[in-house]
Amino acid sequence: MQASGTERAPGGPEAPAATPAAASVAPASSRAVGVRDVAVLAGVSRQTVSRVLNDHPQIKEATRRRVMDAIAELQYTPNFAARALGTKRSRTIGVLASDSRNYGPSTSIAALEAAARAAGHWVSTAYVDSEDLDSVSAGIAHLRGQAVDGIVVVAPHVRVLEALDELRVDVPVVTLLAGGRGGRSDHSPAVDQVEGARIATRHLVELGHTRIAHLAGPSDWLESSSREHGFDLELAAHGLEPVAVVRGDWSARSGYDAGERLLADAPTAVFAANDQMALGLMRLVRERGGAVPGSLSLVGFDDIPDAEFFWPPLTTVRQDFDELARRAVAALVERPDEFGGADAAANRPMLVPELIVRASSAPLSVPR
After folding, report:
1. In angstroms, rounded to a whole number, what is the distance separating the alpha carbons of residues 178 and 156?
2. What 3-state DSSP class applies to 353?
3. What is the DSSP string of 132-199?
4. Angle at CA 69, nearest 5°, toward 63 and 72?
5. What is the rounded distance in angstroms from the CA atom of residue 124 to the CA atom of residue 320?
6. What is the DSSP letter of 229?
């Protein structure tokens, strides 16, 4: 776990520009590059450089670019820790994470780190055991010890959110991967998991399938319950019922193992709650002498980087993890005091996933 921070300093209007330098500044090798060197090269005052570093809203974009170009040319590194001393904000965002080995959480954590850096912030991450309330409490305590300005929760288990409700957390908290049924989409940026599942199921219905099964994820994961709910809703909207719902643990192995029970009910199509489980099911279908989509149409969820290289390439639902992370960071960075207010829902609509149609799904009329 790592952490460091910087601080937004108060300031007034943009300071007048200093006399532009005639040529690039080459600071003496005996001393480190400082704010003065950046100011001279950019043709601004030292106060303006400070305001750019602290994201002051009244800095003109052209001035900001000149200062950032000078910083890059001089390879100037601000002393964020020193600037944070004596201030109320550390410019550090805490991330509370569990199950980071799975694609969704691991991708979200990487996206959060990139979004935080782009916003001039640092990230401190605490990995916790979702089964253990003491572990969650210790993770929160660790992040609070880093003086984080807010916390992003990438722990998509019902138990973790219940634990957070029991703990007193005195900084803004947002959750990721919890959109839809059972989540906190009214207070956090989220992907609409229910709608994503409905899109996937609707695609199979529109291909003419009526015997559709669901390969679900673990029951204690918010995304899993949301996707299963969306599957049920979409089938009901077409007057259909699930042929079967069999649960896996997100792994390809569990998709393979669950396939025996799914295929016993003779579905013509399956909506899998993630791509890895779909991959396992693909293998079992082939081993049993079938083919995808010849004997079973298949749709996954997530659009992992390997999905287009499955054989056949997998039809799936894509989530925009980068945009989700940017929204989470913006919520904490831009207006942390307002976050979670009464107007949160209206200002933060959920992201709608996108169906990516590939070769693993086909019309029911395909010979079987």
Report:
1. 6
2. coil
3. -HHHHHHHHHHHHHTT-SEEEEE--BHHHHHHHHHS---S-EEESS--STTS-TTTS--B-HHHHHHH
4. 145
5. 23
6. H
For residue 14, what is the DSSP state?
P
Give the SS3 label for residue 339.
coil
Q: What's this model's pTM, rounded to 2 decimal places?
A: 0.72
- Residue 250 to residue 278: CA distance in whole angstroms: 9
Distances (CA, A) of 155 to 127, 197, 248, 326, 344: 9, 20, 18, 18, 21
Q: Which fold has domain 92-190+321-347?
A: Rossmann fold (3.40.50)
Tens digit of pLDDT for each residue in 134-172? Answer: 888 889 888 988 889 899 998 777 778 777 777 778 888
CB count in 10 Å sphere of residue 118: 11
The CA-based dihedral angle spanning residues 330, 334, 335, 336, taken in that order and rounded to the nearest 10 degrees: 70
Task: List alpha helices for 13-132, DSSP H.
Answer: 35-42, 46-53, 61-74, 80-84, 103-118
**What CATH code is assigned to 1-87?**
1.10.260.40
Eight-class DSSP state of 295: T
Tell me: the pLDDT tens digits for 207-244?
Answer: 999 999 999 999 988 899 999 999 999 999 999 999 99
User: Which CATH number is correct for 193-319, 2.40.440.10, 3.90.1170.50, 3.40.50.2300, 2.30.42.10?
Assistant: 3.40.50.2300
Token pair of 368 as six digits: 């079987």
- 4 in helix, strand or coil? coil
